[in-house]
Design a protein that fits this description.
The chain has about 140 residues and is an all-alpha fold. The protein has helices at about 5-10, 35-55, 55-75, 80-100, 105-115, 115-140.
Length: about 140
Amino acid sequence: MKSDSSSQNCPPGLESNPPSTVSIDSFPRARVDPGPYTLAALCGIVAGIGDVAVNDLLFTALLVLAACMMLGMLRARRPWRWVIVVVVFIPLTELASYFAMGTRASRAQIYGGFLTVLPGIAGAYGGAVMRQVIDNLREGK
């Protein structure tokens, strides 16, 4: 009987077993709830409409802060996703208003729309912390 060199290094009984592989499909996938994402997109569109209508960066930042704080309280896990979903709709709404109504945004307004990420981060993580504090108070910790 001929033995190969790879079976000499293996413990007894493992020579005939193929190496186990783990594929991505073997892990269970988490179910995605579309409700909060729809609410986040709607809040981003409302913030974008407010940015186009009022043309005030502080008002837009306040809308983004409030929306991300609310979403961070609703779903405290991974709050950065709410910032991305809300803020991405502000420049998209400005672009849609340009094509629909011919309203041209200034460079400052476009850059300001992207800078609303900063109050969004503060709101989302602040809302997540508030949710954890409220959960701890309810549990009596």
